[in-house]
């Protein structure tokens, strides 16, 4: 099972050449078993990036999201109370970005591997990461 960080999800759908070879391989291997997960907080991050002009999509945001949601091998994981609470209880040193903390808590909750290029996340030793 893999969880895609927000930027990995965006790149995978829009610019897969930006992904590392290991990330692409992990995603390709997860497709047949339908083991690709994305935290719903990533939808929030995506919408903010578009709203602030930091990201341009090939279509309107809701249509882009609908296409992602229609992929049969992708599951969006809602931010439930357990994940929200767990994000506040992460051990060790980690920056305070709430979205990153929720994505990490989601990964830990499902026992997955987080695909991320983010060095701060990859440096957090309490979650399995891959890039």
Features:
Rossmann fold; globular; 131 residues; 5 strands; single chain; five-stranded parallel beta sheet; alpha/beta; 12% strand; 7 helices
Describe the structure.
The protein is α/β, with parallel strands linked by helices and 131 residues long. The chain has one domain: 3-Layer(aba) Sandwich (Rossmann fold), CATH 3.40.50. α5 crosses α6 (98-110). The chain contains 7 helices and 5 strands; from the N terminus they run βααβααβααβαβ. The longest helix has 13 residues, at 98-110. It has helices at residues 6-14, 21-30, 41-51, 61-69, 81-88, 98-110, 119-122, and strands at 2-4, 36-39, 74-77, 113-115, 129-130. The protein has a 5-stranded parallel β-sheet, with helices on both faces. The model has no long low-confidence stretch (mean pLDDT 96). The two termini are 15 Å apart.
Indicate the proportion of strand residues: 5-15%
In CATH's first tier, which class applies? Alpha Beta
The count of strands amounts to 5
CATH-defined architecture? 3-Layer(aba) Sandwich
Q: Which bin fits the share of residues in helices?
A: 40-55%
Going by CATH, the homologous superfamily would be 5'-nuclease
Cα end-to-end separation: 15 Å
Order of helices and strands: EHHEHHEHHEHE
| Envelope shape | globular
Domain module count: 1
Radius of gyration: 14 Å
Identify low-pLDDT runs: none
């Amino acid at each position: 099972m893999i969880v895609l960080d927000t930027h990995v999800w965006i790149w995978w759908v829009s610019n897969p050449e930006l992904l590392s070879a290991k990330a692409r391989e992990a995603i390709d291997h997860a497709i047949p078993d339908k083991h690709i997960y994305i935290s719903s907080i990533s939808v929030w991050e995506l919408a903010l990036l578009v709203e602030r002009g930091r990201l341009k999509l090939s279509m309107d945001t809701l249509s882009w999201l609908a296409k992602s949601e229609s992929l049969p091998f992708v599951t969006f994981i809602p931010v439930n109370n357990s994940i929200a609470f767990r994000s506040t209880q992460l051990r060790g040193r980690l920056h305070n970005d709430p979205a990153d903390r929720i994505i990490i808590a989601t990964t830990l909750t499902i026992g997955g591997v987080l695909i991320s290029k983010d060095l701060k996340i990859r440096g957090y030793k309490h979650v399995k990461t891959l890039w």
